[in-house]
Amino acid sequence: MKISDIRIRKTYSANRLRAMVSVTVDSDFAVHDIKIIEGPDRLFVAMPSRKDENGVYRDICHPITTAARRQLEDAIIHAYQEYLATAELLPLEEEEPPKVDTPEAAQL
């Protein structure tokens, strides 16, 4: 898997949701609404999900293997940290963040 592009779409500071990200894979496939969430020990990536008719959250798309998940998460977190380093001098946008509504966030 070749990650062609990572775009930090929006950043937040009011709650555990830190950023919304879009990723392009192999210059052919885009995934939007990936969330970077601050957990108790580290940042982690939550894939886009939706609630099914039973109230259970299901990922819309996700890496199949542990190695692919690690590669994707490491690349996204690295891009986010680079973004923060370059955006440090810019004023922060204070906007009400969307509700973090994922099973991963509910466990925090």
TrEMBL record:
<dbReference type="GO" id="GO:0000917">
    <property type="term" value="P:division septum assembly"/>
</dbReference>
<dbReference type="GO" id="GO:0030435">
    <property type="term" value="P:sporulation resulting in formation of a cellular spore"/>
</dbReference>
<keyword id="KW-0717">Septation</keyword>
<dbReference type="InterPro" id="IPR007170">
    <property type="entry name" value="SpoVG"/>
</dbReference>
<dbReference type="Pfam" id="PF04026">
    <property type="entry name" value="SpoVG"/>
</dbReference>
<keyword id="KW-0131">Cell cycle</keyword>
<dbReference type="InterPro" id="IPR036751">
    <property type="entry name" value="SpoVG_sf"/>
</dbReference>
<keyword id="KW-0132">Cell division</keyword>
<protein>
    <submittedName>
        <fullName>Septation protein SpoVG</fullName>
    </submittedName>
</protein>
